Amino acid sequence: MNQSCQDMGSDLSLTSHYVNVQLSQREILRSGKNTNKDLDKELVIMGDTDRQKSLLGQSHIFKGSNGDKPRRYIMLLGNAGMGKTTLIRKLCLDWSRDCIPQFDFVFFLDGKALSLTEPTNSLQTLLLNLSSFAPVCMDPDAVYAQILAATKRVLIIFDGFGELRDYEILLQTLEKDLISSLQKDSKAQTYTVRQLYSAILQRVLLPGCTLLLSTRPRGTASQLLRRTDSLLEVCGFTPTDIEIYLSQYFTDPGLRASALDRLKNCSYLHLLCWNPGLCRLVCLVLEQCKGLEVLPRTLTGLCHQVLRLKMEKDSRSTHSQAEAQSEISVESVEKTQTQISSRSQVTRGNKNTPTKSRAQVHTRSRSQRARGSKKQENEEDDIDGEGMQSVVGEVDRTEERELLSQLSSLAWDGVKANSSILPTGRTVSAKLKAFGHRTGLFFSYHLRTRQVVSSGEREGGGREDREEMGAGEDGEKRGNKGRMDTENADASDDHILLWANPFLQSYLAGLHLSLSRTVTDRAFLQTLPFQSGQKGRRRPQREELELTQRFAVGLLFYNRTELQRLHSYTETAFRDMVAAKQALVTKHLEGLSHGDLNPAQVLEACHYVYEVSSTHGDGSRNSGSTQLVAHLAANLPEVLTFHGVPLKPSDMFPVQNILERGGTKGRQFCLDLENSGIQISGLRSLVGLNNINTFRACIADVITLWEQLEQSGEEGLLQGMVSKFKIHPLKATQVCHIEHLAKLVNIHTHKKLSDSQSDSILAEGVPAVKELHRLELALGPEKGPLVLPKLWELLPGLHNLQHLDLENSKIGDKGAEKLADALVSLGSLEILNLSQNCIGDQGVTKLATTLRALPKLHCLSLYSNVISDEGAESLADVLPHMASLTNLDVKYNKLTDVGAQSLGASLKNCKKMKTLRMWNQCIPYGVFERLQQHDNRILLQ
Ligand SMILES: Nc1ncnc2c1ncn2[C@@H]1O[C@H](COP(=O)(O)OP(=O)(O)OP(=O)(O)O)[C@@H](O)[C@H]1O
C-alpha cells in the first residue's frame, strides 16, 4: 500500500506533492429521518468564522469530538476534484507508516468494481483479492481469520461511487436468505460484489468495523444519513495551500516565483485553485505557457488551454516517435534499396494514398530529408520537405479533429448518463482509446488484478498492481484512482475505461454541444439552462451538466481562431454556425425573467455571462457578449439574494463582475449573502462595492470583517460596512445565530469592537441592531432551550424590537421569568408570540407584571401552554392595564370555566381589545357559549 498509494500521476507523488488539507464537520438541518431532500440542501451552511473554528486535521477523522465515542460510519463529502480520493490515499499512506495505529487492516473498495456482476466472490476474496492496493497475501486464510477476529480494528473505505444514489441502492434492505447465508458462510464464493458491498454497508458483514464513504454531496441520502455518525467535508485549498502546492509543483525556484506571480495577477484563476483538481490544471498551464502567453481568464479558457497543451504534447511526442521509427526505416529502406528496382513507384503509390498513417508519412518525409540530394535525383518525387510537412500537418489535424469529435460526443453521452465510465465495445475505437490514454483524458481501471488466491495456490498477485501504478506518463489522475493499465487499454471484462478528469469531460461535452455538426440548433436550445418548467423541478442539476452548459456557452463566444483546431467546418460555415448559436443563446438568456430564477440560478446566470464575456484570451469582448453582460446587469433584481446557496470562492468573481457592470449603469443593489458560507475575503470584495446599498451576511463573519478592517486601519471601508449591514428581520434557525447576535448586541451596547479602546464609527452603536424590529426563534423545542440563556441576556439591548416570536422553544416557567425581566427594556414591542412553550401559572404570573409595562404591545399569544385558572386570574388582573392590547390568545391551555369567566369579566374593562381566544377542552362548551353571547370578542377559533 505504501508504494501503490504514492503515485499522483505525471511524476507527482503524495510524499512530495501532497498538501495537507483541512476538513470541516458538517451537520444536517433535520434529524435526517424520513427526509427526501437533497443532501446539499440539508446540510447546515456554516459561516466562515465558525467554519475556521470547526476545522479538523486528518488525524481527527476517526476520533470523536471531545472524547466522544470514535466515529464508525463516516461520510466524506466534496465536489468534483476537491480531493476526496487524494485524501483517502493519504490516509492509506499514513496508515502504512503506522500513523493510524487503531487499524490493523485497511481495505479500499471501489464503486467501479460493481461492474463485476458474476456471483463468484466471498468476503475473503473481496477483501484480499479485489480491494485496491491490497498486497499479495501469502496466507489468506490466516489473515482472513485475523480480520474476522477483530473487526473493530478494520477500516473499510468506499470510494469511486458516482453519486449518493449508488450508496442508497446498496442500503436497501437485504433479503433474509442472503443475510443468513452470508452469516453462515461468508467464505462461500457465491456472492456478487454488490451483495458483499451491501452487506458491509449494512453491517451484516464485518460488524463493528469503521466505514469511510466518499461521495459528492448532490442527491438524496436519507438511508445514509440514518447511519452515518460523522459528515466531513474536504475544504479545498486556502491561499497558503495554493502557494505550497505551487512550490511543490515547481521545483525550480525561478519558475516557482514567476508562476506564483502570474497566478496572483490572475484573480479568477487564483480563486479556481481553491479546488485542488483545478489547481492542478492551472499548474499545467502555468508550466507550459512559460512565455508571454496570456493566461486564461475563465473556466472555459482554462480547460481549453489544458486540452490544447495536451494535444500539442501528444502530437510532438507521436511525431518524435514516428521520426525515431522512420530513422530505423530509412536505414532499412536504404539497405534494401538496391534490391528494389523501382522505388519511385512505391513513392508514387504512397503519395496518392491520402489516408496514410502519420508514421508512414513521416518515414517518407524523413527519408527524403535524410537523403538530401537524392531527392532532386528522383524527379517523380515532386513533393518537397515543407510541402510534405504541411500535408502531414493537414493529415494530422484532420485525424485529430475526427478524434476530438468522437471524444466530445462520448463525453456528452457520459454527462447525460451521469457517468464517467466510457461505454465498452466498439463505440470506442482502438485509435481513440490510444489517443485518450496518450493525452491523459482516459484511464483504464483494472477491476481484478489477481486470480482468486486460496492458501496453497499462491499466484503472483500484487505484481500487476504495482506495475500498473507506474504506467502512463501524463494521466491527470492515473495512479490516483486505483488500478490502471495504459498498455492494455482495451476495455475487456477486467477493464473499464474512464474519464480521468471531470472538468475535461464536461469541457469536451460542451464542445460537442456547441461545435458538433450533429447537434442541431433545436437540440442545442434544449440543452441550455433555465428551461421553462425547470424552476419547480426538485431534482438538482448535476455538477457535470451544469459545467457542460457553462462550457458550451463559453465556447460559442470564444476566440474563433483558438477554436479552429477543434472543428472541421469551412471558415464561412463555422462563422455562420457560431453566429446562429450565439443568437440562440442571447435570445434565451435575454428572454429570462430574472425575477423567476431562484438564487442558485441567478448565480449560474452570472457564471454564464462571465464565461461568455471574458473568454477571449486577450481580454477583448465581442459585441454579443457585451450585450449579454449589459442585459444581465440591467435586469438582476435589486434585492439580490444568494440565501441558502453555498458560494465557493470562485463564485464570487462572476457576481462581482456583473454587479460592477450594473454600477457603471447606475444600478444599486441590496445583497443577501446570509446562509451562503461565503469566505470573508469574498464578502469583503462584494459588499465593498460602491453600488451596494445594504447587505446581509453571517453576523459573525461581518464582525470578523469589521475587526480586520479596524486592524488594517481601513476606516472608510469599515464605516461603509457598518452602515450598510442589516439584520432585520432576523430568523434564528441555528444555535449560532443567537450566539452571533449576542456578540453584535454586545458591540452595540459597548459601542466598540471587542478589542478596540474606542471607536468613533460605533459611537452611536450598531445601526443594524437599532433597526432590528423583528426577531424570530425557529430552533424548535430541542435546540431552542440551548440558546435561551443567551437570548435573555441580549434582549434588553434590542430597544427597537417590535415583534418577538419565540413559538415552540420550550421556555417553561423559569424561562418565562427571565423573559419577564428582559421585557422591561423592550418598550417598542408590539407583538409577542409565546405559543407552545410549556409556560404555566408561575411563569405567566411573572410575565403579567411586566406585560403591563409594555406601552405598545397589541398582540399577545400564549396559545397552547399549560396555564390554568391561577394564571388566567393573573392575566385577568393585568388585562385592563394593558392599554394597547388588542388581541390575546390563550387557547389550548388548562384553564377551566373559572379562569375563563375571570378573563371574560376582565374583558369588559378593556375597551381596545378586539379578540380573546381561550377555548380548550376543560371549559364546558355551555360556559364558553354564554361568555361568547355576552361578548362577541371572545372567539372559538
Ligand atoms: N491535498 C492535495 N494535495 C495535492 N494535490 C491534491 C490534493 N487533493 C487533490 N489534489 C489534486 O487534485 C486532483 C483531484 O483530486 P481527487 O481525484 O482526489 O478529487 P475527488 O474529490 O476524488 O474528485 P471526484 O469527485 O471527481 O472523484 C488530484 O488528481 C490531485 O492531483
Give the SSE map:
Blueprint: H1 2-6, H2 14-17, E1 23-26, H3 39-42, H4 48-54, E2 55-56, E3 73-77, H5 84-96, E4 105-110, H6 123-130, H7 140-149, E5 154-159, H8 164-170, H9 176-184, H10 193-201, E6 210-215, H11 222-227, E7 230-234, H12 239-249, H13 253-264, H14 267-272, H15 276-288, H16 299-337, H17 343-351, H18 358-371, H19 374-377, H20 385-416, H21 430-438, E8 442-446, H22 463-470, E9 495-499, H23 502-515, H24 521-527, H25 543-556, H26 560-563, H27 571-590, H28 599-614, H29 623-635, E10 639-641, H30 649-664, E11 669-672, H31 680-687, E12 692-696, H32 699-711, H33 715-724, E13 730-732, H34 735-750, H35 767-770, E14 774-777, H36 780-794, E15 803-805, H37 812-823, E16 831-833, H38 841-851, E17 859-861, H39 869-878, E18 887-889, H40 897-907, E19 915-917, H41 925-934, E20 938-939
Parallel strand pairs: 3-6, 3-7, 4-5, 5-6, 10-11, 11-12, 13-14, 14-15, 15-16, 16-17, 17-18, 18-19, 19-20
Antiparallel strand pairs: 1-2, 1-7, 8-9
Helix pairs in contact: 12-13, 15-16, 16-18, 18-20, 20-23, 23-25, 25-28, 27-29, 28-29, 28-30, 29-30, 30-31, 31-32, 32-33, 34-36, 36-37, 37-38, 38-39, 39-40
Bound molecules: adenosine-5'-triphosphate (ATP).
Adenosine-5'-triphosphate (ATP) is lined by residues 8, 17-19, 21, 78, 80-86, 216, 245, 276-277, 280, 476-477, 480, 502.
Descriptive report:
Among the domains are: 20-236, Rossmann fold; 636-721, no CATH class. 49% of the residues lie in helices and 9% in strands. It contains 41 helices and 20 strands. Helix 25 runs parallel beside helix 28 (599-614), helix 29 crosses helix 30 (649-664) and helix 39 (869-878) packs parallel to helix 40 (897-907). The longest helix is centred in the middle third of the chain and has 39 residues, at 299-337. Residues 333-388, 451-491 and 534-538 have low confidence and may be disordered. The structure holds adenosine-5'-triphosphate. Residues 8, 17-19, 21, 78, 80-86, 216, 245, 276-277, 280, 476-477, 480, 502 line the site of adenosine-5'-triphosphate. GO terms for molecular function: ATP binding. Residues 314-389, 453-487 are annotated as: Disordered.
